[in-house]
Every structure is written in structure tokens, then in C-alpha cells.
Amino acid sequence: QVQLVESGGGLVQPGGSLRLSCVASGSIFSIYHMGWYRQAPGEQRELVASISSGGRTNYANSAKGRSTISRDNAKNSVYLQMNNLKPEDTAVYYCYGKVQSVDGRVTDYWGQGTQVTVSS
Asked: From the centroid of its chain, how far is CA 35?
């Protein structure tokens, strides 16, 4: 079994910054793609940013220029630095990982989510 645990959410004023962290633990052999998704009330979950095991990144248009995704493969961790936050960034942010377990199976895992609220 594999667990993903996020941290770093909270309340921030418009224009502020937050850094989200996610660490994966458990029976991990390798982690392929990792990423961040978000879901606002009444909306579908949407991609914010993703990063491959080799460091190739992909950003949603809403995140380009304001967010940076990075990962530390040695720590099975992924991070999301978000700057110039706007009220419309308010959502629950979920960490995602495509993980190969030690038994060889490849499974998509999700964290429990961390709330980000942008408000004055």
C-alpha cells in the first residue's frame, strides 16, 4: 500500500504565496508522474501541474507563470510553489502519483487534499 500526504495549504491574501508539499510512502519501487490537481466547490477536479520522473513539467494555463512544480525523487516528494495567488485559486489541492509498487503493479494514488483559500 502507498500513501500520499499533502501539507502546506492554508489561508493567504490575494497576491500572496504558498508552497505545497506531498510525500509518498509505503511499498514504493518507483514513481512515474507526480502532480497537483485542484477542485473548487461545484467544479470538477482539474490539473494544475505535473512532472515526470525525468523532470519534464506541464502546467495548466491558469498556473503558467505563477506556479512552479518540482520533485525530489530521493524523498518521493513533489512540491508546488504558487505565487501571486488569486481568489479563484481557492480550492482543495490534491497530490497525485503514478506509482509502481514493489510487487510490480502500477497504480494511481491520490492524497487526501489540502485546502487553499485566497481571501482578504
From this structure: 5
